[in-house]
Amino acid sequence: GAEMRGHLRDVVNDRELAEALAASGLETILARHTCRHRADELFAILAACGNRGATEIKPATEAAA
Hints:
By secondary structure, this protein is mainly alpha-helical. It has helices at 2-13, 15-32, 35-48.
């Protein structure tokens, strides 16, 4: 509604705000959308579904870069 349009207008008209939002979004992506994070999420889902074997699987450690 009108509130969302106001927020969008603020972002379009305020370069610093737009850059801060972009930086925050990128930080979130880099922190949460990794292969390890996805694998941890999948193991949590399997465990929640009652897959006892999922809790016994030990994910491989990440290779040193």
